Structure formats: C-alpha cells, structure tokens
Amino acid sequence: MTSFADDPCRGGLLPLETALTRILAAIEPLDADEWLDLRLAAGRILARDVHAPTDLPAFTNAAMDGYAVVTAELAPETPLTLVGRALAGKPFAGTLRSGQCVRIFTGAAVPRGADAVVMQEAVRREGNRIYLQHLPQSGENIRPAGGDVRRGERVLRRGDRLAAAQLGLLAALGISTVRVFQRPRVAYFSSGDELTPLGTPLAPGRIYDSNRYSLYGLLHPLPVAPVDLGRQPDDRERLAACLAQAGEQFDVVVSTGGASVGEADLLRQALTRVGELHLWRIAVKPGKPLIFGRIRRAWYFGLPGNPVSVHVTFSQIVRPALWRLAGGRPFRPLRLQVPCRNQLRKAAGRLEFQRGRLILGGDGIWQVEGLAGQGSHQLTTLAQANCYIVLPAESTGADPGDVVEVEPFETSIFHD
Ligand code: AMP
Ligand code: MG
After folding, report:
1. Which atom of ligand 1 is nearest to the CA of 234?
2. Is pLDDT above 60 for 3?
3. Which domain range does residue 109 map to?
C-alpha cells in the first residue's frame, strides 16, 4: 500500500472514504476456520456456503387448523365424511379418498390423497358430516414439501454472520455444527499518565480510564477475541515495547490516546520504531489524529484519546476493518435521510459526526434532534444519543426542517 512517506496528502488530512478504502485494501481476511457447535457459533461468520441437506418443509403440512380434503370431485352442499385426525407429530395413517376429510391442525402432515385444507371457520359440522362453505383450490392452506428450501439449495453464504435467524434456519435443517472463521485476536490498551484504574481514588489532575471500557463495549459484539492489555504511561520506551510485543502476539492492536501532535503524543513515534506508519490523520470530526499501521504480523490502529473520538473512529474505521479481517463481506452502514428538528452548527472543513436522537414525530415521520454538548470529551450526549448525524465536510450546519443524514447506532450493518 502507499506508505505515509510517499502519500500525496502528506501533512494533510485524508477524507474518511479514502482512508477506509486504503485500509480495507491492505487487509486480507485471516481465513482460518474451525467447526463449532451452533450455539457457540452465534455472532460468528460462516467460512463455507451452507447447502440444505433436506427439503424445508420436509413434508407437506397444514398451514391452518381445519379439514384436509381432496379437491377433485368436491360438490357444493354435498357433505364430506370425517374419517380421522392429523396432529403435529401425529400423522393420519390412511389415504384420503374423495368424499372424505380429516380433522387437521397446523403443522400436521397432510394425509396421502388430500390436496387442500379448509380452515375450520369455513365449515359447518354436523356429527361426522362436514359441510364446506366454499370449494377450496388445490393447494389451499398447504405448505408444500420443499416450498421454502429445496434439498441441495444454498441457504447461507460464506461471509454471512450467524445472527438469530441464521441459527434458527440451520437448526431447522438439522445442522448442529458449522464451519466458521476463527476470531481475529485484538489487543487493546489505553495510554496517558493521567489515567487511573476504576476502584482507586483520583489524585489531582487524574481521570478514570474510560476508553478501555468503551473499547470493551465496542469489541464485544464483534466476531473477534479481545484482550485487554491495560494502561501504558506516556513513555516512548514503554509504548514501543508494548507495541512490539503485542505485534508479535495478536492480529490487531488498538490503542487510545497519544495520537495527536502534543508533547506527550508518542504513539506515532513508538510505532515508527517498531513497525510502519501507513496513514495518519483523517478529515473527520471528532477523530482527526487516527493512526493506521503495521507492527510485525499485526495491524495497528492508534485512536485519539478523546472519549467520543474513540467511538467515532472505531465505528467508521476499526469496525469495518475488523469485519473484513474476520471474513465478513463488505457492508455499508445504514444511513437515512431525515428532517432535522433544530439548528446544527458546523464549520466547513471536516466530515462531522454529531450525536443525535431519532424521534418519531406525531405525523409518523422520523425526525432527528441534534443534542446540545458536542464536545469530543462529552460522553453523556453519546450515551443519550441513538444515532450519529453525518454532516458532509463542506456543510456549514443545518436549519430546522433541513434534511440531514443519520446513522442509527443499533442496526448499522447492512450487506450489499
Ligand atoms: P490525547 O489524545 O492523549 O491527547 O488525549 C486527549 C484527551 O482524551 C485528554 O483530555 C485525555 O485526558 C483524554 N483521554 C485520553 N485517554 C483517555 C482514556 N483512556 N479515558 C478517558 N479519557 C482519556
Ligand atoms: Mg494523552
């Protein structure tokens, strides 16, 4: 890949799209896989296509409670003779002939000979005689064998994530183990002399190390194996040693803090001693000082220290990169155009992620409200937000009623 040194944007800021494209182009999926029990595979990414070992449904069955009938030779006003019952798991053993019917319940196998189910609300019953209020079509209220999936058909693709629906589908097909990609091992640490672990009283000028908890929360839902390396002081030697060691042992190393141009911002210097700097500084607010590089066998992401910048750079850069490394197919974050309720302030220059709340208006139309308190240190508004409002670099803000782009937090992964 183009290294920082011969980058035409040297010293400047890379647009997010450019940075992400370069990072994703550099990263190859790890491509190591393993067999896992279905439950342990929850959240993992499939390493092989899955083909159906059976038809689904495996047998033709009733879609409703009612009466199974033979549609040929049905005549209005001529009653049918009730000859038996079919329940889910308890099929009717015989063959149905015209003039006969079987009481049937949802999920029960349709008896041989029958080709429709008349729903129970559409019949009149007098003892063993069943009068139909209308004449059914062949196939009515029946779920045919193989109507959902044919044996041999591909039901899931390599690169699909195993969420609840995929697990349910595999179980319906009787598949109890799946071949999934191994999880990239992701080490993370925070840096800064001011950082204090939870449970220790704060000395003057110190703060709690919140970023490591943010990273824990951001990594946890992904198909990766996170390892917490703790805190590091603002010390070049110690940082370089930490990076070098982590670069030997992990697939990815993520740090927070010390990525900017302050006197104590040493991560870039530490990186260039033990690895390669590929890219630094993106035209994103908050999150400008992002570092991307390579240490031995690991990819390195140096995130800024400001708590909100950690979330923004992780969601926009680190998450798609980890997703690719983990074998997932490319995705786009869900972005929607929504009218804005209040005035949003912004200076032209960088792509900006503001914290917002999507609110359902009385007219049934979703609107977004920008929250007051957009400083990159203000985690409170991030915790109250349910979306980012994504304002383009050239934008100078928005007025009430203007349509803006939002990225909801919870459902931000959508495959092409
Ligand atoms: P830095 O990028 O190291 O200059 O840090 C920018 C700001 O983020 C400073 O106010 C730091 O105190 C703060 N910060 C850095 N690391 C953390 C952390 N792990 N948890 C909370 N705040 C942090
Ligand atoms: Mg610092």
Report:
1. 3
2. no
3. 61-143
